[in-house]
Write a structure and sequence with these properties.
Number of helices: 16
Number of domains: 3
CATH class of the largest domain: Alpha Beta
Number of strands: 31
Radius of gyration: 24 Å
Bound molecules: guanosine-5'-triphosphate, sulfopyruvate, manganese (II) ion
Length: about 600
């Protein structure tokens, strides 16, 4: 199977531990993908969608208990608890490994074990990293095929001695002779473990088949393990989209944006600008690996090869690019099914069809009180499906602006700019957002602090993480580094409606941002940062009331007094005596600006 001794021994070790019936090496060919897809249809794990409407596409329905990332069951397992820090669940490897080894024992009985060599980033690129996922889930194999670069070319690198991250995954549902395999096998919540061993460059996941719990190249590797590697090697692994913008003068700039899960990264990455003459192209929609190059600028590359996007809210008017992207060769998970064997989700069309099969396989009729799709239903599609994919999507691109953002119904204006890079680090650290359905949590809708949109993804101590941002700052100079902004598309009015139309109209804000990166002076100074001088914000052809604009840009002292108190108690709770210097200084300055 491989000439690499480490890989060979690891495969043998997992084989004798998990006892699969069969082993399949993922070669990454279309034939292999198509055959496995067909097998999933034959064994009723997947439904083939109408080939006339959506060629080569599948619908999977997960178990109702296994629909999103499980942060409570996600662990950073380091020798010292302080290396995981206050924001991660920690269990010592000496405790966690025996528990998981017991679970893994014979766990693949009756199943096929897929060995999937994969590259995060273009195969062989100096920014890229290699992994091997061993999984007993055909769904994971199909999704990894789309989301990463897989197969022979990667195995070739490993054969030549390339080191790799060991990523082990099992759905945790062994089959005894005569057992019927459910469509979506998984293990009970208290047996689910999404474990990271950064000291061993290793991931062990057990019991869930969904998204970030199971597609181990994504959050587990490209963020949690990679953030450790990035800290050691002097670069950054961030939960960010990468967008290419061409203005009406044909000037090209690239920006990144860190918004928490289900807060608009894919949509901004695929924005269809409402402003005439502007062109937007996608480089990445979820993860950016960034480093300072010799010219002192910060460059970003998307380590992924596909989109794992939220379907909900995606429509011809909100995101035509995403709709085009999922027209063929796409896997859907937990959407509804139409009578003509196509998919449907909330907001896809203004009116729901009269009849659907819901995401759990039951009849659904228009007017039913519960929605037919799951709010965290997703599509998996190759990057190359995207009609607006930037030609440089496999190259690191220089970043002019970093946007932070979140779902804040109050307090935070539509856009503001930090006074400096270090003030930007502070703004990233105080990010808050309403919890969304991307995580299995009983507190959906509540605002929580989600620093840098990385709360669930920082693979080490958050104090060290913030200090790492400062280190990156010291690797370059203020004028060469990206300018840092904060956007909030989600401010609501007294009737709980979004005030800002969002989506394509966000291009108006992007124009202001790019003008600011060139030092344009059309701004106003507030205690929290620069905001647009409304006279100079491009609002041509936008119908929005003066009152709405006033609310969108208001910075209320009373609101910020509450916010500052909350930041203080949050810092005390999370960092305590370890609060990074940069945050102490910036918080003090903010307080003084409000005096
Ligand atoms: P993850 O894949 O979980 O990391 O999510 P994401 O950050 O890529 O979020 P995504 O773009 O998928 O958007 C999530 C939800 O927010 C969808 O239902 C979108 O329709 C909605 N959304 C995105 N952008 C906007 C916007 O500008 N305004 C409003 N009102 N909703 C938006
Ligand atoms: C997120 O939750 O931020 C996602 C989806 O991008 S998942 O891959 O499930 O983590
Ligand atoms: Mn994400």
């Amino acid at each position: 199977m491989t000439k690499n001794k480490v890989l060979k021994e690891w495969i043998e070790e997992i084989q004798s531990l998990c006892k699969p019936d069969r082993i399949v090496l993922w070669e990454g060919t279309k034939v292999q993908y198509d055959e496995l897809a067909e097998e999933c249809v034959r064994t009723k794990k997947a439904i083939r969608l109408n080939p006339k409407k959506r060629p080569n596409s599948l619908l999977f329905r997960s178990d109702p208990s296994d629909v999103a990332r499980v942060e409570k069951r996600t662990f950073i397992s380091t020798t010292k608890e302080s290396d995981a820090g206050p924001t991660n669940n920690w269990i010592a490897p000496t405790v966690l490994k025996p528990i998981m080894l017991e679970l893994y024992k014979n766990c693949m009985t009756g199943r096929t074990m897929y060995v999937i060599p994969f590259s995060m980033g273009p195969v062989g690129h100096e920014f890229s990293k290699v992994g091997v996922e061993i999984t007993d889930s055909p769904y994971v194999a199909l999704n990894m095929h789309i989301m990463t670069r897989t197969g022979r070319s990667v195995l070739h690198l490993i054969d030549q001695g390339e080191t790799f991250v060991k990523a082990l995954h099992s759905v945790g549902y062994p089959l005894q002779p005569g057992d019927i395999d459910p469509a979506w096998p998984s293990a009970p919540m208290d047996h689910k473990y999404i474990s990271h061993f950064p000291e061993d460059n290793m991931i062990w996941a057990y019991g869930s088949g969904y998204g970030g719990n199971a597609l181990l190249g994504k959050k587990c590797f490209a963020l949690r393990i990679a953030s450790n590697q990035a800290r050691n090697e002097g670069w950054m692994a961030e939960h960010m989209l990468i967008l290419k913008l061409t203005d009406p003068n044909q000037k090209i700039r690239y920006i990144t944006g860190a918004f928490p899960s289900a807060c608009g990264k894919t949509n901004l990455a695929m924005i269809n600008p409402s402003l005439p003459g502007w062109k937007a192209e996608t480089c990445g929609d979820d993860i950016a690996w960034m480093r300072i190059k010799e010219d002192g600028r910060l460059y970003a590359i998307n380590p992924e090869n596909g989109f794992f996007g939220v379907t909900s809210g995606t429509s011809q008017s909100s995101n035509p690019i995403a709709l085009a992207t999922v027209q063929h060769d796409t896997i859907f998970t937990n959407t509804a099914l139409t009578d003509d064997m196509d998919v449907w989700w909330e907001d896809l069309t203004p009116e729901a069809p009269e009849h659907l099969i819901d995401w759990q396989g039951n009849d659904w009729y228009k007017g039913d009180s519960v929605r037919p799709d799951h709010p965290n239903a997703r599509f998996t599609a190759p990057l190359t499906n995207c009609p607006a994919l930037a030609k440089e999507y496999q190259e690191p691109v220089p970043i002019s602006a970093i946007l932070f953002g979140g779902r804040r119904p109050t307090t935070i204006p539509l856009i503001h700019q930090s006074f400096s890079f270090c003030h930007g680090i502070f703004i990233g650290s105080i990010m808050g957002s309403q919890i969304t359905a991307a995580v299995l949590d009983e507190h959906i809708g509540e605002v929580r602090r989600d620093p840098f949109a990385m709360l669930p993804f920082i693979g080490y101590n958050i104090t060290d993480y913030v200090n790492h941002w400062t280190k990156i700052y010291h690797m370059s100079t203020e004028d060469l580094l990206p300018k840092i902004f904060f956007v909030n598309w989600f401010r609501r009015d007294e009737n709980n409606q979004y005030i800002w139309p969002g989506f394509g109209e966000n291009s108006r804000i992007l124009q202001w941002i790019l003008e600011r990166t060139e030092g344009n002076i059309n701004y106003k100074i507030t205690p929290i940062g620069f905001v647009p001088d409304l006279k100079h914000l491009n609002l041509t052809n936008l119908s929005i009331s003066k009152a709405a604009l006033d609310t969108l840009f208001e910075v209320k002292k009373e609101d910020w007094e509450i916010e500052i108190k909350d930041i203080e108690s949050y810092y005390a709770k999370v960092y305590g005596i370890h609060t990074p210097e940069v945050l102490k200084v910036q918080l003090q300055k903010l307080k003084e600006r409000f005096e």
